[in-house]
Amino acid sequence: MSARTPGDRVRGLLVAAVVVAATAGVVAVGLGAYADHVAVRDTAAPVPRMEVADVEDGPRVVFRSTAPGAEYGRVAMVPLADPVGPRAFTDVTCERVDVGGDRVACLRTERGVVTTFAAQLLDEGWRVAGSWPLAGLPSRTRLSDDGALVATTTFVTGHSYAGSGFSTRTEIRSARDGEVVAGDLEELALLVDGRPLTAADRNLWGVTFAGGDAFYATAASGGRTWLVRGDLAERTLTAVRPDAECPSISPDGTRLAYKKDRGERDWGIAVLDLETGEELILPEARSVDDQLEWLDDETLLYGLPRPDEPGAADVWSIRVDPSAEPRLFLPHAWSPAVVRG
């Protein structure tokens, strides 16, 4: 038998790789795509930087960076007065991030032989103060303004709200110690038009806290969605109006912004005046599949994926005005959280 050449050995390794890929299926494909992404991002030009200490004591926007480079996926922040300037990067990696009081909520994908998902609570020094496993893909997280409560939503099945086969799990915990307050919002009594809705296909997601025990969220069943008001003390969810998803309450507590289905899972932006019940539709023609964030009482922020750059997104702004125009607010960013003080 002739001796094996280096080319023979390479071909043998390639054959073995094919066999492994055929056995591992989707896992091999996913890891390969991720490896390609890492290779691209690690050769990209660095993003202009500043120190965290120079940003964290003032008004700022905290977000997940999607700029190509070694910091892809890291939590970063910029001064509120200069969102397109240099960024301060933390050592924390999150899929979703929010800030409330002295707490940071971070939803993570932990990749390995078996990919898992987790929620973390971080303190002011970006140290882990608590963590727990998540039931599926990270989707939404919100902290109450005082940093007392944290909500998380994950996809248990399905990968987005655009399909009909998704199922979510939304829970509320103490942001002090991670103790469960409402382990699954589907366990709370849901009232629609004054009658209990107990259908097995109920889904709840997209919490925004309204002070004390009150919060708003989305409920869905039978192909319909409702904006619901929740009460943790009474363990109830009451439908407020139909066709509203992923609410976000304004800083002054007078309005709710949410995405509204224009048909075929194409979402526009709507704002509801809680006192008058008047709904305003904003002139954003693109589909916004995100939970909106208030920059101030008159301006909204939201993420939009870049159609020509997989894995990247930008944060846009729009004023709460029927004649407003969307503007690019923060390039290569996702999951914005505004810290005003």
Protein architecture, described:
By secondary structure, this protein is mainly beta. It has 2 domains: 10-43, no CATH class; 45-339, TolB, C-terminal domain (Neuraminidase). It has 2 helices and 26 strands. The protein has helices at 6-24, 26-41, and strands at residues 60-65, 74-79, 88-93, 96-100, 103-110, 116-122, 128-133, 137-143, 149-157, 167-174, 180-182, 189-192, 195-196, 203-209, 214-221, 224-231, 236-242, 245-249, 255-261, 267-273, 279-282, 293-296, 299-305, 313-319, 327-330, 333-339. The strands form 6 sheets. A 6-stranded mixed sheet has the order 13-12-17-16-15-14, with no helix packed on it. A 4-stranded antiparallel sheet has the order 3-2-1-26, with no helix packed on it. Helix 1 (6-24) packs across helix 2 (26-41). The longest helix has 19 residues, at 6-24. The chain is globular. Residues 1-41 have low confidence and may be disordered.
